[in-house]
Amino acid sequence: MSTRILLVEDDERLAELTAEYLTKNDLQVAIEPRGDAAEARILNEQPDLVILDVMLPGKDGFEVCRSVRQQYRGVILMLTARDEDFDQILGLELGADDYIAKPVQPRVLLARIKALLRRMPTASEPAQDNESLVFGQFRISQATRTAALGSQAIDLTTAEFDLLWLLASHAGNVLSRDDLLQELRGIGFDGLDRSIDARISRLRKKLNDDPENPTRIKTVRGKGYLFSKHDWN
Question: What is the torsion angle, in degrees rounded to the nearest 10, for the CA atoms of residue 61, residue 67, residue 72 and residue 75?
Fold first, then answer.
């Protein structure tokens, strides 16, 4: 079954060219030019991945992302203005899985889409829970891509799960931003990218970690982040 993508882009010519390129690479692409209409389509159609521009008529991409995130379990890839760090961070804080700056080369967009989709479980994959980590009341499963704190399931986006699994699988060790970006996105840390920081902030909230004095995902100044083996009771 072909991967279904909803491209939310109001530039008609750009949307057509992008859809044509992705279709030639065995992806099924539908186009939606309006943000307000996109919201309903995402929830009703549940595409595998949404490419979501920020500047849209009706509702902007940020509003759409915020509105659908709790009910949409697929991947959201936001298109942001080049060098607009605020746009990138806001998108991630609202639950986007990744962002890419415009203008974007079609080959780069395709590579990013494939990387994101590789992390998604398929219906044919067995849910054998043989890759789990447990720390006190916290449990995370790579096989089922789920996490829970006590009896409470933790609602995670694809990108949040990937980051949390990476940290937990290296519990007790400091991982730098460069380590994390290389593993998760295949790029090095340029000194400016705040995507990891934004996701860490969201994870701390979901893990009931004190943002002022975090003990579960610790910041090691000048070095990176450390997932604690303790403090999970």
Answer: 30
Domain extent for 76: 3-118
Question: Residue 105 corresponds to which amino acid?
Answer: Q
Classify residue 38 by burial, with Cβ atoms within 10 Å: 0-12, 13-18, 19+. buried
Contacts of 197 (CB under 8 A, 6+ apart): 89, 177
State the pLDDT at residue 227: 96
- For 21, counting Cβ atoms within 10 Å of its Cβ (0-12 exposed, 13-18 middle, 19+ buried), the class is middle
Report if residue 233 sits inside a domain.
no
Helix, strand, or coil (residue 219): strand
- Average pLDDT of the segment spanning 163-185: 90
Q: Which two tokens stand for residue 215?
A: 């003990």
Report the predicted TM-score, pTM, of the whole model to 2 decimal places.
Answer: 0.66
Phi, psi angles (nearest 5°) of residue 99: -140, 160
Asked if 158 contacts 116 with a C-beta cutoff of 8 angstroms, the reply is yes
The residue from 59, 90, 118 where one domain ends is 118
Q: How many domains does the chain have?
A: 2
Q: What is the pLDDT of residues 75-93, one digit of tens each?
A: 999 988 755 566 667 777 7
Q: Are 164 and 158 in contact (CB under 8 A)?
A: no
Predicted local distance difference test score (pLDDT) of residue 124: 43
